[in-house]
Amino acid sequence: MTPAERAQLALLLEVASTPKPGNVDRNRDLDDLRFEHFLAGAVGSGEGLRMAANDASVGEAFECAVEGMSRQGGGNTQFGCLLLLVPLVKAAVEFDGALTPEDATRVVESTTVADAADFYRSFEHVDVAVADPPEDAPELDVRRGSEAIPALESQGLTLYDVMEMGADRDGNAREWVGGFRRTFAAADAICDDDGPVPDRAARAFLDLLAEESDTLVTTQHGEEVAVAVSKWAADARGDEAAAERLAEALVAESVNPGTTADITAAALFVALERGVRV
Amino acid sequence: MTPAERAQLALLLEVASTPKPGNVDRNRDLDDLRFEHFLAGAVGSGEGLRMAANDASVGEAFECAVEGMSRQGGGNTQFGCLLLLVPLVKAAVEFDGALTPEDATRVVESTTVADAADFYRSFEHVDVAVADPPEDAPELDVRRGSEAIPALESQGLTLYDVMEMGADRDGNAREWVGGFRRTFAAADAICDDDGPVPDRAARAFLDLLAEESDTLVTTQHGEEVAVAVSKWAADARGDEAAAERLAEALVAESVNPGTTADITAAALFVALERGVRV
Question: Which residues of B fall below an 8 Å CB-CB distance to A?
Fold first, then answer.
């Protein structure tokens, strides 16, 4: 398999992994967001992922992947996953040997203002739940889409700069500017674990959720709920029945730790790059 | 989406559709053949499917797709699906307007001896359960792989000719030489049905299995078992609980109507080409 194929497989393995409390998984749909929307999203992401492996910029590849991902009826399925996967695919292709946090950091640090503009344009393809922008920079609200591009350009902000500004409020931005720390740690856990890869990924998801509150849960339900969800995830670790009950409860309450699922997908990609086989 | 993307999505929707008695589906694995093997098979098939849409011959595209599909640990996941999908993708690309049985027939009738050689080579990438060859043509046993190519060449047999020789014993070969009759009928059923596409595909699968005994079941368990399975499928139509029970029973007995699943995947592709959306 090529890095682009492994990234596409990572998207599919992520959604197939179960139980992944609060997320669509092999055994659970949300009300209007179903398993098949993620399958179509993974198929549609393929071209952008191949672009990332073929010398396109991070921004171009990401916007193409998001545009392809959005051609299904469920809305946003894998925007956050792709934000992590695109630079990781580029790092896997550009540097020899095992994919490292340093390789990934070199890719994201080399992003440009044009990449930032592509990132903002990507929000026009699909509705993404995001936190509010910094109070002192309302002109950089990602929800403005391409209307925010003149502000990016006048301030000379690269995509890395944009992620740095969001790192205190967004778990995926934190991965970008922090050497993909949680991604690589979860990849190590998947590599060291035994059994079918989706089962390993489900365990890695629960560990990630237990360790840190989820950005999307915080955005949609507030910090207190997010902290409680992480505590419940910690309690369910190592107890499959408890994890299943938590999955039922969170789906019933529409509490969706989507950022944790994004990092799980990125970790699956790194694990596949490091030799884990399905 | 492009035709190649729709074909890849059809592979994924097929395996996600449940209950699909006797087959891997969203809710069931077989002993050594699990859901994630089909996900990896669909990812690996992508390049061959894109070749089919980009002027490669049927044989070249099919061999590439099978080689890519086989890069996972479950063995044969989608050989038969790809045998139907590759000419259908070419037909969708080569002829304007709605994909028709006549378009598909024009593609398969134009196959060459070189396509037949590629088909035989494809058997070297993965173990495929097949019926015995015609008694008067042991030299054309597909299990011989590329060793059979001199016999193909000396007899001037195209891939269409090879399928014609197998049509009495193989449901997929029958689709090739019979205008993809069951594929298009099942596609019509999926188009006319309501609800999530995987649910429609599961109902189409049960109808197909009820209507005609499955080639793979006949090959592995004999004609009497295959006829019985079709009767049970007929009894379970329209009764979801009965279909679930049949799915449990067939998986427990390793009775795998895989050819019916192949036709379901092909029907999903035609339905997607005709405008069904996920």
Answer: 1, 5, 8-9, 12-13, 16, 26-27, 34-37, 39-40, 42-44, 46, 71-73, 196-198, 277-278
